[in-house]
Amino acid sequence: MKQGRQEAFHALFMAFHKPLCFFAARVVRDGEEAEDIVQEVFLSFWKMERESFPNLKTIKTFLYNSVQNRCLNYLRDLEIRDRNYRNLNREELDEDYFLCQQIRAEVVAELFGAIDELPEKSKEIFKKSYIDGLEDKKIAEELGISLNTIKTQKQRAKSFLRVRLGDLFVYVGMFFPGF
Predict the structure, then answer these.
(1) Which keywords are on file for this protein (predicted)?
(2) Looking at the structure, do residues 21 and 81 belong to the same domain, yes or no?
(3) Whole domain around residue 63: which residue ranges?
(4) Nearest Cα to 121, choosing from 154, 88, 91, 98?
(5) If you placed Cys at 127, which of 13, 24, 80, 131 could pair as Cys (CB 3.0 to 4.6 Å)?
(6) d(CA 34, CA 24)
(7) HEC profile for the chain?
């Protein structure tokens, strides 16, 4: 094994593959996933510096510990996915919900596209105010400009966005509190 000979690795694989798959399947309760986990462990072992394994016992311990850890990671990830799925309300799972989310994403993209078209100073002030949530006074201090300039630039940004976005402008307040 230390010399990286494929025959030695093959012999190791043949000796431990089935027991490791059985072990993993008992933990994750899914034979195909268990097989994948064991394959990943063997692959990572093959890529490692094997000089740190003085004998077969340390290799066996490494393989079983690695399979156990990957099984636990798999179960943790599965539990998180299941919890997130359960947290969705049933009505959210229908096509209308996904269509609404797609439309919302497109509206947000349009809003940010319009914001990017603002003149540089207006864009900077708009983002600091409505995205970062900074107060006008704080923005004026940061940028070294007057409070009236901040208010004027925000008003210009609103006017530009109202014209640029047309009917979509009504949604700006949904995404930028205080607008």
Answers:
(1) Sigma factor, Transcription, Transcription regulation
(2) yes
(3) 6-87
(4) 154
(5) 131
(6) 5
(7) CCCCCHHHHHHHHHHHHHHHHHHHHHHHCCHHHHHHHHHHHHHHHHHCCHHHCCCHHHHHHHHHHHHHHHHHHHHHHHHHHHHHHHHCCHHHHCHHHHHHHHHHHHHHHHHHHHHHCCCHHHHHHHHHHHHCCCCHHHHHHHHCCCHHHHHHHHHHHHHHHHHHHHHHHHHHHHHCCCC
Query: Are 80 and 112 found together in one domain?
Result: no
Do both 14 and 81 map to the same domain? yes
Whichever domain contains 62, its CATH number is 1.10.1740
Give the pLDDT of residue 95: 63
Rounded to an integer, what distance in angstroms lies between the CA atom of residue 177 and that of residue 159?
Answer: 17
Query: pLDDT below 50 — which residues of the chain?
Result: none
pLDDT computed for residue 24 by the predictor: 94
